[in-house]
């Protein structure tokens, strides 16, 4: 299960349609693959441990989750294309390349299997965007270690997104970070909640 956050939409690919990324299963007679090794992400310290702990404390304060000194997730920068593949899966990514389709850029992903957060190198020099991506993914980390992720199951994983957006937005407002993006994130929170409830309107472009 991969959970991801994206920031931008281009070339007619709507945020509402592509924003939530989890384990994707496709049935097709055409096979396209990319030979990219995901096992060795590029390593780099993203933020100070104190910053991560401050974010975790914030999430605990504004949620029902607990943090009892569990090991922190590994946080690394990863090449932009590899983050996209992590989020979409290699088949979807390869199909987009084959069809010259622009996918929504994913800026960070949390992988519960490796207990890792991978941040796209495309925002490496944008400190405020990195922090926004991290607060979102750290919500998913706390959901995971508190058992909420497992309780949802793959089919309902989208239900974890609205909460992650809401806490992220609150953090942005209190800390005055990337305020211009808040309205867009509010829309994503609403879309996530609607998809969680199975609303057919959540997929309208």
Order of helices and strands: EHHEHHEEHHHH
Number of strands: 4
Cα distance, first to last residue?
A: 26 Å
Helix content: 40-55%
Q: Report the portion of residues in β strands.
A: 5-15%
Contiguous helical run count: 8
Would you kindly provide a written description of the structure presented here, covering whatever features stand out?
By secondary structure, this protein is an alpha+beta fold. It has one domain (2-26, 37-200). The protein is 43% helix and 12% strand. Helix 2 packs across helix 5, helix 3 crosses helix 4 and helix 7 (161-175) runs antiparallel to helix 8 (182-196).
In short:
With 205 residues, the chain is of the alpha+beta class. The chain is built from 8 helices and 4 strands; from the N terminus they run βααβααββαααα. The chain has helices at residues 15-18, 49-61, 80-88, 90-98, 127-145, 148-152, 161-175, 182-196, and strands at residues 2-8, 74-78, 105-111, 116-120.
Give the helix/strand layout.
Blueprint: E1 2-8, H1 15-18, H2 49-61, E2 74-78, H3 80-88, H4 90-98, E3 105-111, E4 116-120, H5 127-145, H6 148-152, H7 161-175, H8 182-196
Parallel strand pairs: 2-4
Antiparallel strand pairs: 1-3, 3-4
Helix pairs in contact: 2-5, 3-4, 5-7, 7-8
């Amino acid at each position: 299960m991969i959970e991801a956050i994206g920031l931008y939409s281009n070339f007619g690919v709507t945020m509402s349609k592509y924003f939530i990324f989890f384990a994707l299963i496709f049935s097709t007679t055409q096979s396209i693959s990319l030979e990219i090794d995901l096992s060795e992400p590029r390593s780099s310290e993203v933020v100070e441990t104190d910053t991560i702990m401050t974010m975790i404390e914030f999430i605990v304060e504004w949620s029902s989750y607990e943090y009892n000194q569990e090991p922190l997730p590994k946080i690394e920068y990863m090449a932009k294309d590899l983050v996209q593949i992590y989020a979409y899966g290699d088949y979807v990514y390869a199909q987009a390349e084959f069809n010259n389709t622009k996918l929504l850029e994913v800026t960070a992903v949390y992988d519960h299997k490796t207990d890792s957060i991978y941040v796209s190198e495309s925002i490496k020099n944008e400190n405020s965007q990195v922090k926004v991506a991290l607060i979102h993914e750290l919500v998913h980390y706390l959901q995971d270690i508190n058992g909420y992720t497992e309780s949802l199951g793959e089919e309902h994983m989208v239900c974890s997104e609205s909460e992650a957006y809401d806490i992220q937005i609150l953090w942005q407002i209190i800390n005055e970070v990337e305020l211009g993006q808040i309205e867009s994130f509010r829309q994503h929170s609403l879309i996530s909640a609607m998809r969680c409830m199975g609303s057919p309107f959540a997929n309208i472009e």
